[in-house]
Hints:
Blueprint: E1 2-3, E2 8-10, E3 20-23, E4 26-29, E5 34-38, E6 42-46, H1 51-69, E7 73-75, H2 80-92, E8 97-102, H3 107-119, E9 124-127, H4 130-142, H5 148-165, E10 170-172, H6 177-181, H7 185-189, H8 195-204, H9 210-220, E11 224-226, H10 232-239, H11 243-246, H12 253-261, H13 266-270, H14 276-279, H15 282-292, H16 298-303
Parallel strand pairs: 7-8, 7-10, 8-9, 10-11
Antiparallel strand pairs: 1-2, 2-5, 3-4, 5-6
Helix pairs in contact: 1-2, 1-10, 1-12, 2-12, 4-5, 5-9
Amino acid sequence: MKDDRKRTIITDRLNSESETIPFDDSELILPGSSRVELSDSISIRRKDNKEGGYISDLRQVLMGAVRKTRADAVMVSGGIDSSVLAVLADSVRRDTELCVAGFGDSEDVAAAGVLARDLGKDVLVAEMDDESLMKSMAELKRAGLYSYNLIMGATEYAAVKALRDKGRRTVISGIGSDELFFGFYRHRKMPREALADFRDRRLAYMNATDLLRLNTVGKVLNAKLYYPYLEENVIDYALGLDLNELTKNFDKSLLRALGQELGLSEFIVKRKKKAMQYGSGVVDRIELLSKRGGYKTVGEFIEGI
């Protein structure tokens, strides 16, 4: 909290430094993220009705989550989720390694190159091919993954393996951002009154879906994966935001505004979401391999691995 001696008090989001102030014969409890003006009367207004105040808070909680990981690498795709984490991780330790996985001409590999230029550092490219794709899917299948998780996990496996081979075994993933900030296309089609419940259910089942896959990848490769967007303080922050603000355009505008503030290029800030399995080129390759192998469906191809 800051008092500028003009009887104007600005509170932080959680009002952690001071919860009350004396006012005449009473004590005034100050709301978080507010501007309080004291004279003969009391005026309390929201500190920021625009994204500015939200951005500052989001940066603070995400930075705390990134620092807590003490990770030395970030899986990136050139999307806004992982790019924001890459900037924050790079500010914590300049030797943080960035790694993108995909086929050579994939969108993610090209976009990660733009991110690397934004940060003035190299990006490690885990370039995939048919042989490495098949091997990774087979190994993850032996570890208990199947279907969708095999397709998703192949890209993550390639990135984590490339990092591990360079001695990096603590890796940040951008998973969880779409759940918290309504980044999925399906959010646009849902009744507004159903959004909060859908988000809660997605978060509740992540241990059995995305995190099961990612943790399996880490276990297979003897690496530790971290998820700053799913750190408790970040979740609490996101759940406390105004739902209308978060869903006014379903494009993670708050996160994009933070990316802009952090100095990311317009290309990265405005790049539309593309799911990892498509941005890496993995789905196209699996479909091609399925046809070449004479399989009727991708599902049959995966069963035959």
